[in-house]
Amino acid sequence: MTASRTLRIALVGAAALTAASLTASAAVAAPAMAEPTVTAPSPATRTHSATQEAMDAAVKDGVPGVAGQVKDKYGVWKATSGVGNLKTKQPRSAHDRYRVGSITKTFVSTVLLQLEAEGRLSLDDKVDKWLPGVVRGNGHDGSKVTLRQLLNHTSGIFNYTADDEFVRKAFLKDGFFKHRYDTATLGQLVEIAMSHKPDFAPGASWNYSNTNYTLAAMVIESATGNSYGDEIHDRITEPLGLHATFVPGTYPKVPGPSSRAYGKLAETTTGPTYDVTELNATLAGGSGDMISDSGDLNRFYSALLRGKLLPKAQLAEMKKTVKVDGSPNLEYGLGLSATKLSCGITVWGHGGGIHGSLSEAVTTADGRHSLSFNFNGDWAGDSGAVIEAEFCGE
To answer: Can you tell me the distance from the alpha carbon of 348 to that of 333, in angstroms, rounded to the nearest whole number?
Structure first.
């Protein structure tokens, strides 16, 4: 992980990318730049030129295209760079929908914290209370893991996306094209993790594990009797009017407006580039399966940090962070990361990756300056540089 960026950890490319940021150089020629789409400026509006330059640099590094939006006191700024389709050279749209990967975790955590605020569960509950016998085997013990430890990745539960067979099926070329439309249940994903030993005893350390949020989604379903996708819809996306945001279930396409998504389907960043847009995202159930767009993500994180979704006590719990080893400027709360930038500003949010898609969504502590953007390639580009440019540049 790179300290100057938010977490960009989830289902990306290969096992080496399930717990680290992607920092490789470009592997394909950069496509032509698309003109930025910008709202009509007022005399006081920032130009965001540094942000545009950082987006253009990502395309020069090999990202097919970048699409993003900023919302601040001056209004909304929308911009793109590169293309959304390598064959047709159609430019990206700032209104593109895309797979948001681990940004899903903030939505799941928010629902679980809302349930705590309603008195329906406690962060100190053991996983076994809600999922008896599910976390068991090879040293895993759900009677010793709390819901809080799931949400802040201190549970020690093995990360199922690091399983060698899962990597072969989900992330590498032959397996992906054979299994891209397969359906996985939440329970099946957890079973993969239970076939391995824990990384450490609960609470003893920190390690990013997608299994934690698959389990959190299962807890939501156990506590409510509804699917976690329905709870996210009813509690977050519908009240906030996030019409581009949803849990797709087994639906394999990304609704328009959208661009194609590209990946290497290999453990290296060289070699052929494949269109990986279509897939059954249940392989990322609860940990990275959602679809959204930049405008919706800005609205969500702004509302969250401004206390529109959680009472003060639960928002304070969400913002209680733990250190992330090797990243002195990065800390992790309950589905929410805090990154201290080079200019001293701390931004809150989450990053996310899934096949052919790398996304970032961050906002200031007061929720009044938000940035969300997406790379439609999963092997190149520096997302941290875009964030630095927006909050510390011109």
So the answer is: 10
